[in-house]
Specification:
By secondary structure, the chain is an alpha/beta fold. A hairpin with a 5-residue loop joins strand 22 (419-429) and strand 23. Strands 15, 16, 17, 18, 19, 20, 21, 22 and 23 form a nine-stranded mixed β-sheet that branches. The protein has a seven-stranded mixed β-sheet with strand order 2-1-11-10-12-13-14, with helices on both faces. Among the domains are: 9-196, Rossmann fold, CATH 3.40.50.12780; 353-442, Roll (Luciferase, domain 3), CATH 2.30.38.10; 444-552, 2-Layer Sandwich (GMP Synthetase, Chain A, domain 3). It is globular and about 70 Å long. The protein is built from 16 helices and 28 strands.
Length: 553
């Protein structure tokens, strides 16, 4: 197989090894309680990939070209992604759920020269032309209306001859993936073929993934990893921009009909789905591994899945990482229930487990400025909360055309030459070598009485039955911030006057040393969260809201 480090080689290898095995199950319709699918073998997927590669090359897409890819999950998204990888082109992938303004700025930052997209995205290009001014070549997946350019369907007919992957080095750019922008402007993360390759290897080995597995990935990008690992992929019937709104009955039907064995999704999905499954006494007998990431996972989700829904011997996991470095560490749901959940409820943070093989994690002193070079002298002792930094083969080296952001996020090791990524998270190691997450570094509240971290503090108040979730914010400037607890009430909870609930919450806080300084409580109707996982709370927005509330009073 040619192609060097080109990750497109994985598809060709799977197609040669098991050509008639189903690669994609794309839902088409439902009838009489069952669901119909379009099925595509690995051989067919390879052929579609080759057809698109020929067509794209015929219009000038070459190695290094940046291609904005805005296509819904399914055959076209998968085949076009691998076609671009084959050509050595660089797909630009932006989460459409991050909001119009953020999305448009991401497009401008990436400066793509080619756009391959559905009609709705091309309509946006016409409406907001200044953000798309770098785009010279347009390809429409679906019907063209007023904008001209090329039809993906016609490009697909150029040739069906096999296309060998372009030879790529491990350090050459493979894709630009944008962060969620949950704690600042979204940034384009430069992924190399070597980083993708390491991710495939680490994830496959950690979870014992084989070609016998069938995956239902609730995050579209992970379908590409699944194909690379040789899994059969079921495209979930959900809106990827609003995963928490997924219909539990539909997902359960897909998992059981397609005999899904592994799935990756946000805890926001499984919070609702697991509750529905238990209430309706529905089990998922083929599902042996559930991976949840994007935000801390409540212990009751693990409990429902492991004790009421999944078959004996199944496992749940919560991988920890970021767009810039994934995966970093993980922990099983069984260990959470047996050992760490009780500690989390006491305000010790969320345990994210042990680092993956080949990944090195350190805790350094919190610093809001750049740390250009470093060594072991920066590290804090076990048990002390600091900033989490990671090094290893899945750590990306830069943001696209953002040198200042890269400078703030990366540390160059003097001794080894390794690049460390600053996760932007606060945490610590326990005596067993497990990593604990205490919240985003920028969300810490620095008061005269000490520094408060969001996750340990919020855990105390989240135990109140009337609280759906809470968010700690700091008003004013460090080191003299006022800590304010903002509460989203549980609609299923018993009605209770706010003044009485405030009194009970403050009593809860007063019973713990690290929350005694919180003396102000506000109530918010519905927390703003990220679109990708519907789980990361936008505390910056809540902080502004709380500041205005204080001004009004």
């Amino acid at each position: 197989m040619t192609g060097g480090a080109n990750i497109a080689r994985y598809l060709d290898e799977q197609a040669e090894a098991t050509p008639e095995r189903i690669a994609l199950h794309v839902p088409r319709a439902s009838s009489g309680g069952a669901m119909a699918y379009d099925l595509y073998t690995f051989a067919r997927l390879k052929e579609e990939c080759g057809r698109y590669a020929h067509g794209l090359r015929s219009i000038g897409v070459r190695k290094g070209a940046r291609v904005l890819l805005m296509v819904r999950p399914g055959l076209e998204f998968t085949a076009l992604s691998f076609a671009l990888f084959k050509l050595g082109a660089v797909p630009v992938l932006i989460d459409p759920g991050m909001g119009k303004a953020n999305l448009l700025h991401c497009v401008a930052d990436a400066a793509p020269d080619t756009m391959v997209a559905i009609p709705l995205a091309h309509a946006a290009r016409l409406m907001y032309p200044r953000f798309f001014k770098s785009v010279k070549t347009k390809v429409t997946v679906g019907p063209r209306v007023l904008w001209g350019g090329h039809s993906a369907a016609k490009l697909r007919e150029v040739s069906n001859a096999p296309v060998p992957p372009e030879t790529m080095r491990a350090d050459e750019m493979a894709a630009i993936l944008f962060t969620t922008g949950s704690t600042g402007p979204a940034k384009g993360v430069v992924y190399t073929h070597g980083v993708f390759d390491a991710q495939v290897r680490l994830i496959r080995d950690r979870y014992g993934i084989t070609s016998n597995d069938t995956d239902l990935p609730a995050f579209p990008l992970f379908a590409l990893f699944s194909i690379a690992m040789g899994m059969s992929v079921v495209i979930p019937l959900l809106d990827p921009t609003r995963p928490a709104k997924a219909d539990p009955a539909t997902l359960a039907l897909q998992i059981n009909e397609r005999r899904v064995t592994i799935t990756f999704g946000s805890p926001a999905i499984w919070r609702n789905v697991s509750r529905w499954l238990v209430e309706n006494k529905v089990k998922l007998p083929t599902l042996t591994r559930v991976l949840m990431a994007g935000a801390p996972v409540a212990p009751e989700i693990h409990e429902r899945l492991l004790n009421h829904i999944l078959p004996p011997g199944a496992a749940t996991f919560t991988p920890f990482g970021a767009t810039e470095s994934l995966p970093v560490a993980d922990i099983s749901g069984r260990e959470v229930l047996d050992e760490t959940a009780a500690l989390s409820a006491q305000g010790q943070g969320t345990c994210v487990g042990y680092p993956y093989p080949e990944m090195t994690v350190r805790i350094i002193s919190i610093n809001d400025g750049p740390v250009e070079t470093g060594d072991e002298s920066l590290c804090l002792p076990q048990g002390e909360i600091g900033e989490i930094v990671v090094s290893g083969p899945v750590v990306t080296k830069e943001y696209f055309r953002k040198p200042e952001a890269t400078r703030l996020a990366k540390i160059h090791d003097r001794a080894t030459g390794a690049v460390w990524h600053r996760m932007g998270d606060a945490g610590y190691f326990d005596e067993k070598g497990r990593l604990w997450f205490c919240g985003r570094k920028t969300h810490r509240v620095v008061t005269k009485e000490g520094t408060l971290f969001t996750i340990p503090c919020e855990a105390i108040f989240n135990q109140h039955p009337a609280v759906a979730r809470s968010a700690l914010v700091g008003l004013g400037d460090a080191p003299d911030q006022e800590p304010v607890l903002i509460v989203e009430r549980d609609p299923a909870g018993a009605p209770k006057p706010e003044i009485e609930l405030v009194r009970e919450l403050l009593a809860l806080g007063a019973a713990h040393e690290h929350t005694r300084s919180i003396r102000r409580v506000l109530f918010h109707p519905e927390f703003p969260t990220d679109a990708r996982h519907n789980a990361k709370i936008f505390r910056e927005q809540l902080r502004e809201w709380a500041a205005k509330s204080r001004e009004r009073t």
